[in-house]
Amino acid sequence: MQLRHMNQFIPLQGIISENLPPDKHLGEADMSTIEISKEEADPDEKERLERIKNKPLLVECFNLFDFEFVARHVMKKTAWAYYSSGADDEITMRENHSAFAKIWFKPRILVDVDKVDYSTIMLGTRCSAPFYVTATALGKLGHPEGETVLTKAAHTHDIIQMIPTLASCSFEQIRDAAVEGQTQWLQLYVNKDRSLTKRIVQTAEGQGIKGLFITVDAPQLGRREKDMRSKFGDIGAHEQRSDNDVDRTQGVARAISSFIDPSLSWQDIPWFQTITKMPIVLKGVQCAEDAIKAVEYGVQGIVVSNHGGRQLDYARSGIEILVEVMAALRERNWQDRLEVFCDGGIRRATDIIKAIALGAKGVGIGRPFLYAMSAYGVEGVERAMLLLKQELEMNMRLIGATKISDLNPTILDLKSIGTHSVPTPTDVLSSQEYDGLLVPKSKPKAKL
Amino acid sequence: MQLRHMNQFIPLQGIISENLPPDKHLGEADMSTIEISKEEADPDEKERLERIKNKPLLVECFNLFDFEFVARHVMKKTAWAYYSSGADDEITMRENHSAFAKIWFKPRILVDVDKVDYSTIMLGTRCSAPFYVTATALGKLGHPEGETVLTKAAHTHDIIQMIPTLASCSFEQIRDAAVEGQTQWLQLYVNKDRSLTKRIVQTAEGQGIKGLFITVDAPQLGRREKDMRSKFGDIGAHEQRSDNDVDRTQGVARAISSFIDPSLSWQDIPWFQTITKMPIVLKGVQCAEDAIKAVEYGVQGIVVSNHGGRQLDYARSGIEILVEVMAALRERNWQDRLEVFCDGGIRRATDIIKAIALGAKGVGIGRPFLYAMSAYGVEGVERAMLLLKQELEMNMRLIGATKISDLNPTILDLKSIGTHSVPTPTDVLSSQEYDGLLVPKSKPKAKL
Amino acid sequence: MQLRHMNQFIPLQGIISENLPPDKHLGEADMSTIEISKEEADPDEKERLERIKNKPLLVECFNLFDFEFVARHVMKKTAWAYYSSGADDEITMRENHSAFAKIWFKPRILVDVDKVDYSTIMLGTRCSAPFYVTATALGKLGHPEGETVLTKAAHTHDIIQMIPTLASCSFEQIRDAAVEGQTQWLQLYVNKDRSLTKRIVQTAEGQGIKGLFITVDAPQLGRREKDMRSKFGDIGAHEQRSDNDVDRTQGVARAISSFIDPSLSWQDIPWFQTITKMPIVLKGVQCAEDAIKAVEYGVQGIVVSNHGGRQLDYARSGIEILVEVMAALRERNWQDRLEVFCDGGIRRATDIIKAIALGAKGVGIGRPFLYAMSAYGVEGVERAMLLLKQELEMNMRLIGATKISDLNPTILDLKSIGTHSVPTPTDVLSSQEYDGLLVPKSKPKAKL
Amino acid sequence: MQLRHMNQFIPLQGIISENLPPDKHLGEADMSTIEISKEEADPDEKERLERIKNKPLLVECFNLFDFEFVARHVMKKTAWAYYSSGADDEITMRENHSAFAKIWFKPRILVDVDKVDYSTIMLGTRCSAPFYVTATALGKLGHPEGETVLTKAAHTHDIIQMIPTLASCSFEQIRDAAVEGQTQWLQLYVNKDRSLTKRIVQTAEGQGIKGLFITVDAPQLGRREKDMRSKFGDIGAHEQRSDNDVDRTQGVARAISSFIDPSLSWQDIPWFQTITKMPIVLKGVQCAEDAIKAVEYGVQGIVVSNHGGRQLDYARSGIEILVEVMAALRERNWQDRLEVFCDGGIRRATDIIKAIALGAKGVGIGRPFLYAMSAYGVEGVERAMLLLKQELEMNMRLIGATKISDLNPTILDLKSIGTHSVPTPTDVLSSQEYDGLLVPKSKPKAKL
Ligand code: HEM
Ligand code: HEM
Ligand SMILES: Cc1cc2nc3c(=O)[nH]c(=O)nc-3n(C[C@H](O)[C@H](O)[C@H](O)COP(=O)(O)O)c2cc1C
Ligand SMILES: Cc1cc2nc3c(=O)[nH]c(=O)nc-3n(C[C@H](O)[C@H](O)[C@H](O)COP(=O)(O)O)c2cc1C
Ligand SMILES: Cc1cc2nc3c(=O)[nH]c(=O)nc-3n(C[C@H](O)[C@H](O)[C@H](O)COP(=O)(O)O)c2cc1C
Ligand SMILES: Cc1cc2nc3c(=O)[nH]c(=O)nc-3n(C[C@H](O)[C@H](O)[C@H](O)COP(=O)(O)O)c2cc1C
Fold first, then answer.
1. Boundaries of each FMN hydroxy acid dehydrogenase domain copy (chains A, B, C, D) (predicted)?
2. Of these four, A168, B72, C201, C439, which has the most CB atoms within 10 Å of its CB?
3. For chain A (length 448 residues), average pLDDT per consecutive 10?
């Protein structure tokens, strides 16, 4: 048990293994094996295997939601719970996508849109589209080949991948899966032991990693109840539980917290600048004040993000923060002093276009690619990327934009961004007593 | 298969046939025949035929939604999918109607409303009411006689019809279905081959068409997933699919895109003005800036529209654009320099009155007439028009207006137009744990 | 059939009978008898009678919604349809009550509220509470004794009743049901034949009626589809229908319109002032401009109302109009030049208190008393009134008000009145793919 | 029957018994015994006992909603009805929690959050967290040991408990359950007989109570229909009812009102200041004006609260009042002249943090602890407190705050507080006719 949980958090093994204290030194995770024994006993598992056999053809997936739908039905319950869960009541997690519905388009007509080019440059790398695969931990929960699946699809589509510190494949495996010249970035959780962190960063830089994304929104890993509940279920089936178990799940979070340094602060930034020449990007900026500070500290970029709604509930969506951040930067004419990225809830090309038009250089996509990977492997992720590109081309054309630089705030209606409409509780009696309108009745059958 | 799809897009055959490149020269579409073989195999088809037999009497349709209800039950699934679908998540498609709920009335009382006259003049033609039949492609999917059904009903009610470039009947057939003096307009998709476009326009003008509506919101035809999925279903039942099918649907869209010229731009407008004396109207204007440009380019009108929500999702509703456009025109005192029309989501006379009061000369209605036609043919469309007129008379009276020119912004409460309220995601636990209020209980039955 | 409808609508018979053209002269309606023959055939009718037998005890009705619930189950379908229906999509009808949810309280504490007095004076009559029974046509549909049921309950509770022109009991019957000194008002539909109208008004004044409410929001009676459909059902079951029936319902509306004069206008007001000394109140004012006019024309009062949502859909709620009207009157310091009443959607004492605090002298209540009457007769209406009074006492105490004049705008939070929030259409895929949060699971049963 | 109700409400017996008029002198309540006879007859009761046997393990409760879920299933129906009910349509009751969704966070990153300390000082007492157990009547309905259960858990977690005047245990019992030095406050309903009130207050002070919370939002106890209905059910099953029962429930409220003095007013405050040195706090302040007055009258604190939504429906949520109150205090620079507390709807640490950041010294929590107590006794309440603390630590860290004084308005996005969004009634036809988007279909099973 303990073992199983520990295994889940062996990050960047190639780099780290030598540096880990012995009790964290457990060799590579083989999740498929570990899970199997348990799952066999599970009566639901048979049905799941049946569902896998009959899963829809890949070509029947027409948008990113479709992969989520299929994944939900074919993934192991615990894996689904881990990927799909968010903090507390998952308000922020869902707000992330729904916030995009507060922004509407003001398309221009009669523009020659014969040729549309949505390629762009992020942190110096030209890539085929303004989105990237963001870092997500524990890829092997969804697919036996883990993060390397994403690497391969990213290559097919000339898309940048961000490698997570807490990957389930080793850093070397992920690098090896990439082809010569394929750009990857590194997402970094900073360790209390800074010499370990230094070695990770420098190894990555040495291996050609092109950007260092320091996660700043996770001094402690979030409480995700869906995930806790799913684990509890497993445990409960096998063991005698006592009420002293109270803190076990919490304990895991704490174990990680001892790995992630909660004392990391602005004071540490200059040190990072001494140990690497990679552009440094702060992942998880959540208000204008911190974006301004980021410029002042001389970092190369920020990701406005709330960690996919997995950390603090009622944190605002990335897209809403983006509006505030860009306004503050433009006020000081600092919008070119760093690159702003945005993630959280991106599901449609229209979402991407909104972020780019507001001023983002690119957007990160997390769960959708995990779902595509879990349901259909490399081909799934490739199709997900293809669909996004088809939508991008179509929608830029319909907006009257032929290139990324045509996308700017004048094509957006932003009046409603920033409002959080909370419907007044329904008047139960009044609404249940209402007798809805009817539709015309069919003729009664001749007989009967 | 290929054949079937190609056939669907043979527009304006009479005019075009001589000009089409040979591989697009396929003769008139007979959709009913083509579909039949497949439908016979369909087990659902029997139920549908049963439903047709028992469909409600026409007189039981009391509003435009009723036709939609009946059509959904009696139309072929693929035809229903084509008519009813919209872009992406169909947010814009539904917003089109629901945006009208943001506008409320400030009716005037104690006005002599004995006589109410809602007739009006559009592009120089007096007609019985301020709405027209807008252009919609592929009428034969819904009714074997296609667009001519609309022509006949339009005549009965003295309503203008706009003929689509992509009609399933030939242009001549549609003209012939009209009676002497009946006004029709032409909706135009501009071809890469401008000589072809020129011939279409001039033929139309020669045959007495009274207005040229150039569609400017469709440089590429939209992705409508409901439609794609319905087609996929069909195909899947017959053929071995491989994942290389990925782009087939896309391919059809592209075939059409090669017919519709995506490079059409403002620079082309003067040319149109040289080839015709018909009033030129741009169909699909979506912001004030382009409305201003339209005046500057000297066209006679614009339709604020998002193509029925079939092109770009999160494009704003026609009625919301109308508010913005009229404000910009009035600011320059240009409101009389062109006629502004509006379409999208019109289902009630109150919707029409709102648009007219804001400044529109008339409104276009698409799907409701298609549904009335599909469910009940000419008589259906006639009743749909009659119901709208009855509602118009009633509602103008209740507003205190006796003629079109009485309708102006002072009768409207516009405070909420332009807001896009997106409810915060529900707090699932909090709401599911709420125990609703109860109603009084009946006495228990004497026995039991 | 024809007969049945005719009989139902013999209003103010005592007064009118002598003046009606012979073909409208049909004697008193006995609806219970007339209906029976048809209802016997109805298979649903048996179930309804069963439901009546088991209906909840009157004391189990704790609020006005409860009467609606019971009435829906025990009333005849057509009667229910007539009472409960509203115009078009019934948006305004439902908005009427839900608009009250836009106003919140700012109660004052530490006020001596030992004694609470909510009696008030309306048009010179002191009465026990600031609400009255508004005029509603066709009382006999709900109860064999029709409007006289309301008269009796009104007396018990010292509440004013407004007698409808289109009552199903004769005017004399309703007057006779009242006790000596009981105040009643008259609601007036103005006839094309002004001498008839004059006689009605003067007879009423002669018999001691204390106020003349001229309905100004119904130059034509509304289209209520629920009601139309319910009638259609009946007809359809018995007769061969042809599509020429199209206009039958419409025809009726027109017949009534010929009774109600749609040419009534401000020019007629001085004439009314010459024929009666009763205070004149315009029922159905819907914007500030007309309220101002009402003062200028010297009438004694107005009712801000949209006829219970039965006339024009998207007309604003009475309470919202009230805010606008009071602001306009106060701006000119005219708030004491006429009495403002308000009706529509009043269901709770909190609704009443909001209207009074905004400046209304009293509020009218329509459907709730009809439902109480239909379900439980006089005792039902009495209990409905009692419940309102109990709520009034309680809520005034909790607000820190001991008398009507303590209720003023400072106890209200009005920030949200006037906004019409229309939720953006839901992102179907995104919301259906969301996997809600779970609750703890029960232990599995010992066995199994 | 009568007896049962009497017994339930013997508050503060130790203090009061000597002072009560003889007819209110009934000895200590033993609810479990009294209820049993009736419940045995109840067929639902067997199922409830079954549910209790299988209730989830305590460790499976991961948040405060979980306790509500379990309590709903294991509590007696009448007890559940009493705890869970609110005034009228329970709009305010539900608004209390949902209002928190109008406030969002602007977390700060890169703050050293290694150590987080959420302890604080309220009315001079240091305690482990900024929440307290607020006063709720009738604890024995939920647990045979009543309020002492809360006392014990409060001690475990170093949390302050407020003792209710209307406790079901005697005041002495509750004091005795506390350990030496454990801080308790007293909630006071003021009696018409001030000498009785004086004795209660002085006894409490003598026994070391550290704060006097005078409830000012309940001059009359609220009408809670869910509760009324649940009682009616019971009665109905046993007795012959007549319609004269109308006022029975009302009568009880009146009996209580004769106990609680509705004439209590600001004039009484100076008197309280003469009889005690305990800090005086007004519980139930609901607008800025009264908060200002409270300062002027020299009390030590206020609780912005609406009594858990149990008194006046459409009273605003505590958190919304808090915003208004703090603004008014800060405007006069009076924010340190009294301590402001807040209660109502607190369910998550994020709720607590929002209130504290706005300026509250602490928040009261009512129902959640009652539910935890009813479902799991002392251990349940302890776990509820533990969960809140875990959430507090986590969320403060994620916000970038290490101590209570770091929480201030700059971490909040308050743009939407104060708006009461009431969705326009849905367009039933339009929404029911919408044909939702589909998801990919599974392959048909090989056979079949
Ligand atoms: C003096 C003559 C009449 C008067 C005063 C009268 C009055 C009324 C009134 C007050 C209503 C309900 C109005 C409302 O909803 O507010 C009504 C409805 C109706 N009346 Fe009459 N009526 C008259 C003659 C007739 C005649 C001649 C017919 C039939 C041939 C008729 C058939 C109906 C029907 C079917 C309705 C229901 C209308 C609906 O569905 O909205 N009435 N009438
Ligand atoms: C010193 C005497 C009494 C005290 C202090 C007292 C206190 C209370 C309290 C605190 C409540 C609940 C209040 C709340 O909902 O916040 C209550 C409710 C109730 N009491 Fe008493 N009570 C007393 C005497 C009585 C008597 C004499 C009766 C009956 C004859 C009675 C019957 C009830 C009933 C039926 C309820 C439920 C009320 C409802 O449904 O809202 N009580 N009482
Ligand atoms: C399963 C999962 C694991 C994640 N793990 C990490 C991580 O280890 N480090 C990190 O910085 N962000 C992590 N994230 C956050 C993502 O980088 C990104 O911010 C977020 O997923 C974007 O939202 P989306 O999933 O809606 O696209 C994770 C997200 C998910 C869903
Ligand atoms: C099935 C269908 C086909 C359409 N085809 C065309 C077309 O060929 N050309 C065009 O300009 N607009 C086309 N439209 C858009 C309509 O002209 C119009 O903008 C829209 O239908 C109005 O919205 P409504 O359907 O809600 O009334 C089509 C709309 C539908 C529903
Ligand atoms: C069944 C019914 C019949 C009505 N008949 C009349 C009428 O004849 N004359 C009139 O002025 N108002 C009439 N009204 C409108 C009412 O006077 C009042 O404006 C409305 O009912 C108030 O709304 P409420 O029903 O929500 O309380 C009628 C309303 C109903 C429900
Ligand atoms: C069952 C119950 C009984 C209550 N009894 C009292 C009371 O006797 N005196 C009082 O001042 N407040 C009383 N309250 C109000 C609480 O002190 C507090 O204001 C409220 O419960 C806070 O809301 P919450 O339940 O959502 O946390 C009671 C609340 C409940 C739920």
1. 56-417
2. A168
3. 31 39 37 41 82 94 95 94 94 97 98 97 98 96 97 98 96 97 97 95 97 96 85 43 41 58 97 98 98 98 98 98 98 98 98 98 98 98 98 97 98 96 91 82 53
Domains of chain B: 60-233+249-417 (3.20.20.70)
Q: Which residue of A has its CA nearest to C66?
A: A429
Query: How far does Cα D69 stand from its chain's mean position?
Result: 17
Could you list the beta-strand ranges (E) of B313-408: 339-343, 362-365
The reply to whether ligand 4 has any atom less than 6 angstroms from the CB of B308 is yes
Ligand 2 binding pocket includes D185 (Cβ within 6 Å) = no
| DSSP assignment letter at A163 | E
Residue D241 is given by DSSP the state -
Distance CA A407, CA A399 (A): 9
Single-letter residue type at D376: Y
Joined tokens for residue C272: 């009314």
Within its chain, how far is the Cα of C136 from the centroid?
6
- How many Å lie between the centroid of ligand 4 and the Cα of residue B307? 5
Q: State the Cα–Cα distance between residues D47 and B147, nearest whole angstrom.
A: 64
Touching subunits of C (3+ CB pairs, under 8 Å) are A, B, D
DSSP annotation of C191 reads: B
Q: Which residue has the tokens 């300026």?
A: D359
> What does R_g of chain C's alpha carbons equal in angstroms?
23
Whole-structure pTM value? 0.90
Helices (H), B267-348: 269-275, 288-296, 318-331
Query: What residues contact residue B153 under an 8 Å CB cut-off, 6+ apart?
Result: B159, B369, B373, B378, B381, B382, B384, B385
Q: Which residues of C are less than 8 Å from D241 in CB distance?
A: 57, 59
Decide if A3 touches C, using CB distance below 8 A: no
Q: Which of A99, A101, A442 sits opposite B55 (nearest CB)?
A: A442
Q: Which ligand 5 atom sits nearest the alpha carbon of residue C134?
A: 17
Distance CA C123, CA C105 (A): 28
Side-chain half-sphere exposure of C121, counting CA atoms within 13 A: 4
Whether the CB-CB separation of C313 and C91 falls below 8 Å is answered with yes
> How remote is the C-alpha of C107 from its chain's centroid?
29
Report the distance separating Cα D159 and Cα B288, nearest Å: 60
CB atoms within 10 A of CB A409: 15
Residue with tokens 């609508």: C9
Cβ of residue A104 closer than 8 Å to a chain C Cβ? no
Size of interface A-D (CB pairs under 8 A): 171
Listed in sequence order, the DSSP H helices in C308-348 are 318-331
Max distance between CA atoms of chain A, in angstroms, equals: 88
Active-site position among A132, A155, A217, A227: A217
Question: Of C197, C185, C262, which Cα lies nearest the Cα of C19?
Answer: C197
Would an 8 Å CB–CB cutoff place B429 in contact with chain A?
yes
The tokens of D26 are what?
């009934």
Q: Which two tokens stand for residue C441?
A: 């699971």
The H or E element spanning position D281 is strand D280-285
Backbone angles phi, psi at A282, to 5 degrees: -90, 120
Closest CB to C439 among D69, D250, D286: D69
Pocket of ligand 6 (CB under 6 A): D 82-83, 96, 134-137, 164, 166, 187, 215, 283, 305, 307-308, 310, 343-346, 364-367
- C288 phi and psi angles, rounded to 5 deg: -60, -40
A404-423 residues touching B, CB cutoff 8 A: 413, 415-416, 419-423
CB contact set of C238 (below 8 Å; sequence gap of 6+): C1
Residue D233 has pLDDT above 60, yes or no: no
Residues 6+ apart with CB under 8 A from B180: none
Using CA atoms, how far residue A328 sits from A288, A299, A315, A382, B154, in Å, is 6, 17, 19, 37, 56
